[in-house]
Design a protein that fits this description.
With about 350 residues, the protein is of the alpha/beta class. It folds into 2 domains: about 140 residues, no CATH class; about 170 residues, no CATH class. Helix content is about 20%, strand content about 20%. It is built from 8 helices and 12 strands. It is elongated.
Length: about 350
């Protein structure tokens, strides 16, 4: 057997030749290519039991990549370049999985690439590493459909309260003819809206601004949905609803044409439709008027967390029509897309 192909030689040889993870393996270094089965063995030996507890998602990803470099004998770069794949020298990407839903962003599966899929426990301890080729992974992708996802950036400033626009869109403004608006609602917040129950954007701002400074228990950095539910409950109560409901549909509080966003980072995930889209919203007409996506109001709360409590520090309110006037869209018209691949239950066995 070639001595370069024994278990223990790869990290040592890679380290001795002082290659970076970005250096291609030219002819003289082809012996440093780590076979897939050996790559899986090395990473399992080095990563199982490794803890990323308490780390934000991006920091966790960086720390895992640093550990992979150390295990394979590569020097740890000061920062990781946004190459495709992230480890060009060995032609693989790393994915950290707490769930069975693998997400691949902005690219199709490459048949020639390796995919290092790292399973972590609910306590953020590495339990298992599986290394597969793109060919193996593509067999699990039953749709091949890239799910598009619009994103924007939120940059808080000195003001903790921002009413981006003081008037609703022309279409919605036309429907708001009431002078006395309800102070409480017996209707469900997910019911379809009616003209006599929709609060003007100014009144929504007045009722929600007192939530800044409020804090609630932090359910965990990777529990955005649960955090969002707690904020959603607070907003329903502040608006005057006697009950709370959430069916996961857009907008969150349909009765007020209000979408809610809790931000602990500057990246705003907007889902499948741009806020300023003039496409019709999937709700019944209101007094014969069709409501569009851009008529929806967006309540964004920026928050900080100390790991125990989430504290609401800033509140922004805008219409979808004016959304990008304050929150710039990532990449202009670029749409971030992802493949979602459900991993079988026995994938890591």
């Amino acid at each position: 057997m070639n001595k370069f192909h024994t278990h223990y030689d790869y990290p040592k040889r890679i380290s001795e030749r002082n290659l970076s993870i970005y250096d291609p393996l030219e002819e003289e270094n082809q012996d440093l290519w780590v076979p897939t089965s050996e790559l899986e063995r090395l990473l399992n030996n080095g990563l199982i039991g490794f803890s990323t507890s308490g780390l934000p998602l991006r920091t966790r990803s960086k720390v895992i990549k640093q550990e992979v470099c150390r295990i394979l004998g590569y020097p740890i770069p000061i920062s990781f370049k946004k190459t495709q794949p992230r480890f060009p020298g060995q032609l693989f990407d790393t994915y950290i999985q707490k769930s069975d839903n693998l997400q691949i962003w902005n690219e199709d599966i490459s048949l020639s690439r390796r995919y290092v899929i790292i399973k972590v426990s609910q306590d953020d301890i590495v339990e298992r590493v599986k290394v597969v080729t793109g060919e193996t992974l593509s067999a699990l992708d039953t749709t091949g459909t890239l799910t598009q996802k619009y994103q924007a950036r939120l940059s808080p400033n000195a003001s903790t309260l921002e009413l981006i626009v003081s008037e609703d869109t022309d279409i919605l403004h036309f429907l708001l003819r009431e002078t006395d608006f309800p102070t409480s609602f017996t209707s469900s917040p997910i019911q379809n809206p009616a003209a006599n129950s929709i609060l003007p954007i100014k009144m929504i701002f007045e009722r929600l601004q007192s939530l800044v400074g409020y804090h609630f228990p932090d359910t965990g950095y990777d529990q955005e949905r649960n955090r969002g539910e707690q904020l959603h409950r607070l907003i329903c109560a502040a608006l005057g609803y006697n009950n709370y409901s959430d069916d996961g549909r857009f907008p969150d509080i349909r009765h007020q044409l209000l979408e809610v966003k809790l931000q602990t980072s500057p990246t705003i995930d907007l889902g499948l439709v741009c806020p300023n889209s003039k496409e019709d919203l999937d709700i019944p007409t209101i007094e014969g008027v069709k409501i569009r996506h851009c008529d929806v109001r967006y309540a964004l709360f920026y928050a900080t967390t100390d790991g125990d409590h989430v504290t609401l520090t800033h509140f922004f309110l805008t219409t979808g029509e004016a959304f990008f006037d304050r929150f710039p869209q990532f990449g202009g018209k670029v749409v971030n897309k992802k493949l979602q691949i459900p991993l079988p239950n026995d994938f890591f066995d």
